[in-house]
């Protein structure tokens, strides 16, 4: 008789330390593979690879700040998509929501700069960015709630609509004319530039995101809204049965999701770049999806997940610079790590039982 | 005056990579796998072909048959590996399809750009850029009498063989899905794997087969783009967001590869429409024109869901991993 070699069954809840142990092992394994791949590409010994990557990420004070800034933005977008994912609403439109938030910020800076006191201008920028992001996320949410329109595909398409909208306004507002870009907005007056904390360019962003992280943690775990989100995510039918208005929860949650993306756009445009381009989000809307999922929708876990990805990106970019390789090297390493962690989830959820040899 | 005779061939050439991507993704989605890794797979397919062609051309003495066969096989092999990876993670290990797909796109686009940008350095060549003109010439060879037939020849006969292959594959895929037993089984797997399983179908095998075949077809789209459309010149990120547009096309055609043939040309046309709008219109408006394929897709998506007709819906189990013991 034919017998399968092993069979698969669902585990009971693993204790958190075993689960994280499996994930940790996957990450270590992935780092080893990454080192081998890098060694093959550069001829460097694998240990030296990580030495170089470490240098790239932490080598100078400036690099540490850049690392923290990238970490903050990626974390911010990851926080934004999380409530939606927890509800099993696949918002992969964060890219577009960040862009549109950034565009709204830039619009305020360009159109109102110098006409209003700076404090008021920044307040208006904040409101505009939050509103723009929220609206951008709410459009697919309304259709999802009313007609069950596929949100993955809808939000994906909204990204490109946002990109082209930004491209349109970049040309409308281009300065100097014909350059095809906006350049630094209000370079002389610094109107609408977010204030610097303690003279550090990136500190404000980091503080804002730190506050958001805690707030999101509390929101998801200790509020009625957070509870409703988990119920809808677990089972829409149960949610209906216990009287949760599913449609309303979807729209409200996406509104929040988009609003936080809008804040990320504000921080990027108002806080650091002081300009807007079609690439300010730089693929982070998609990376955030993976960060959020890696951390199992836990905001604190996301800090580590974003750190890992940002560290790899910065480190790989250093390796690319030194060896004259292409900067996409980091994406390959990120991909490898993600594949390993994605694969490791299986061993957390399921158990393989090997069939004993029959005597 | 709008120059329709030069517009159509360009729209078609823009449409072909989308057609490959959409046909591949339709097959994949029919098995219940929402493969968001298609953009990455198309990059991997393209760069695998480029690597094959690059190494072959470096050996000198370019012969017609290997010049076509080597890139083609490399492309198919590269995309197949990506398809297998996706299946292994989502079918065997039951990972989340969206996350896996996005990770594959990150990886694939990075892989393409990395090797595209570093191939010369890694192989120690002394050429300034990757320009595979000799190999590309065989890919873009049109029918010999195309030039002598005026507008007709230009509109219908001026393409390389991969363009015709795309149309053939799309129609074959449509036929397989609609008319054959294998197609019926595949659709059953995508709609309701539990029922298909009970009927004795091997779910895993169907999902693997459809997704890998889909990946290989999508990979050809990347190869067509770089070898024919771009005349063998690789430039990083030139392929752009066409992979996502291919996924849009799947929705636009409500999961029918035969509709994808004209629809891909329509999308191709929308993609380059901005080049043909009358001079004097401002540059900024051109950017708005580039939005049109996405807006059109959103509208179709909404209409399909509002009308809620049974035959126009996405496969029922799309995006959900199947685990027999979980019923």
What's the arrangement of secondary structure elements?
The complex is a heterodimer of chains A (359) and B (327).
Chain A: E1 6-10, H1 16-42, H2 46-58, H3 61-86, H4 94-112, H5 118-147, H6 151-172, H7 203-222, H8 224-234, H9 236-241, H10 246-273, H11 284-294, H12 299-323, H13 329-349, E2 350-354
Antiparallel strand pairs in A: 1-2
Helix pairs in contact in A: 1-2, 1-13, 2-12, 3-7, 3-8, 3-10, 3-11, 3-12, 4-5, 4-6, 4-10, 4-11, 5-6, 5-10, 7-8, 8-10, 11-12, 12-13
Chain B: H1 4-30, H2 38-58, H3 64-92, H4 97-123, H5 133-139, H6 150-156, H7 161-179, H8 181-191, H9 193-198, H10 203-229, H11 242-252, H12 257-276, H13 283-289, H14 292-307
What does this structure look like?
The complex is a heterodimer of chains A (359) and B (327). Chain A has a domain at 70-296. A two-stranded antiparallel ribbon of chain A has the order 1-2. Chain A has 359 residues and is mostly helical. Chain A has 13 helices and 2 strands. With 327 residues, chain B is mainly α. Chain B is 72% helix and 0% strand. Chain B has helices at residues 4-30, 38-58, 64-92, 97-123, 133-139, 150-156, 161-179, 181-191, 193-198, 203-229, 242-252, 257-276, 283-289, 292-307. The longest helix of chain B has 29 residues, at 64-92. Chains A and B meet through strand 1, helix 6, helix 11 and helix 13 of A and helix 3, helix 4, helix 11, helix 13 and helix 14 of B.
């Amino acid at each position: 008789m034919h017998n399968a070699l092993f069979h698969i069954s669902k585990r009971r809840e693993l204790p958190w330390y075993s689960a994280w142990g499996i994930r940790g092992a996957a990450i270590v394994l992935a780092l080893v593979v990454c080192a081998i791949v890098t060694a093959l590409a550069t001829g460097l010994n694998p240990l030296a690879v990580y030495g170089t990557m470490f240098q790239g990420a932490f080598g100078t004070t400036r690099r540490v700040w850049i690392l923290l800034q990238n970490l903050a933005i990626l974390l911010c977008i990851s926080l934004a998509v999380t409530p939606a994912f927890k509800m099993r609403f696949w918002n992969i439109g964060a890219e577009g929501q960040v862009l549109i938030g950034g565009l709204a910020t830039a619009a305020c800076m360009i159109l109102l700069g110098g006409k209003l006191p700076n404090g008021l201008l920044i307040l208006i920028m904040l409101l505009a960015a939050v509103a723009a992001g929220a609206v951008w996320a709410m459009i697919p949410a309304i259709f999802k709630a009313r007609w069950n329109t596929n949100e993955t595909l809808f939000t994906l398409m909204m990204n490109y609509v946002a990109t082209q909208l930004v491209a349109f306004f970049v040309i409308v507002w281009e300065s100097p004319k014909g350059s095809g870009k906006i350049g630094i907005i209000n370079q002389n007056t610094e109107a609408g530039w977010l204030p610097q904390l303690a003279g550090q360019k990136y500190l404000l962003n980091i503080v804002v995101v730190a506050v958001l992280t805690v707030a999101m943690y509390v929101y998801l775990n200790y509020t009625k809204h957070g509870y409703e989100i988990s119920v809808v995510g677990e089972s829409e039918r149960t949610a209906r049965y216990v009287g949760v208005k599913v449609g309303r929860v979807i729209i409200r949650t996406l509104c929040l999701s988009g609003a936080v993306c809008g804040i990320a756009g504000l921080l990027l445009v108002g806080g650091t770049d002081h300009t807007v381009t079609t690439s300010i989000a730089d693929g982070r809307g998609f990376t955030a999806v993976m960060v959020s999922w890696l951390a199992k929708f836990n905001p604190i876990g996301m800090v580590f997940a974003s750190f890992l990805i940002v560290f790899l990106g910065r480190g790989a970019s250093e390796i690319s610079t030194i060896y004259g390789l292409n900067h996409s090297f980091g994406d390959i390493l990120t991909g490898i790590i993600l594949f390993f962690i994605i694969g490791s989830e299986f061993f957390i959820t399921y158990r393989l039982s090997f069939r004993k040899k029959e005597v | 005056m709008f120059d329709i005779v030069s517009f159509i061939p360009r729209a078609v050439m823009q449409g072909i990579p989308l057609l490959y991507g959409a046909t591949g993704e339709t097959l994949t989605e029919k098995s219940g796998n929402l493969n968001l890794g298609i953009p990455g797979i198309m990059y991997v397919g393209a760069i695998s072909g480029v690597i094959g062609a690059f190494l072959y051309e470096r050996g000198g003495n370019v012969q017609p048959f290997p010049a076509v066969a080597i890139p083609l096989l490399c492309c198919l092999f590269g995309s197949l590996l990506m398809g297998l990876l996706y299946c292994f993670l989502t079918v065997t290990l039951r990972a989340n399809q969206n996350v896996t797909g996005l990770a594959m796109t990150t990886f694939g686009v990075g892989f393409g750009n990395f090797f595209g940008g570093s191939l010369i350095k890694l192989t120690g060549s002394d050429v300034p850029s990757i320009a595979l003109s000799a190999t590309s010439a065989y890919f873009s060879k049109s029918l010999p009498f195309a030039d002598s037939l005026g507008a007709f020849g230009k509109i219908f006969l001026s393409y390389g063989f991969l363009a015709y292959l795309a149309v053939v594959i799309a129609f074959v895929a449509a036929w397989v899905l609609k008319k054959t037993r294998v197609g019926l089984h595949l659709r059953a797997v995508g709609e309701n794997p539990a029922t298909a399983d009970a009927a004795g179908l091997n779910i895993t095998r169907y999902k693997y087969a459809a997704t890998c075949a889909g990946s290989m077809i999508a990979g050809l789209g990347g190869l067509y783009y770089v070898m024919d459309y771009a005349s063998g010149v690789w430039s990083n990120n030139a392929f752009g967001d066409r992979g996502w547009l291919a996924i849009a096309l799947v929705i636009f055609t409500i999961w029918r590869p035969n509709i994808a043939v004209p629809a891909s040309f329509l999308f191709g046309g929308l993609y380059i429409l901005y080049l043909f709008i009358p001079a004097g219109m401002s540059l900024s408006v051109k950017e708005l024109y580039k939005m049109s394929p996405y807006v059109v897709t959103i509208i179709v998506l909404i209409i399909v869901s509002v009308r809620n007709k049974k035959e126009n819906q996405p496969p029922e189990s799309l995006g959900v991993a199947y685990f027999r013991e979980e019923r």
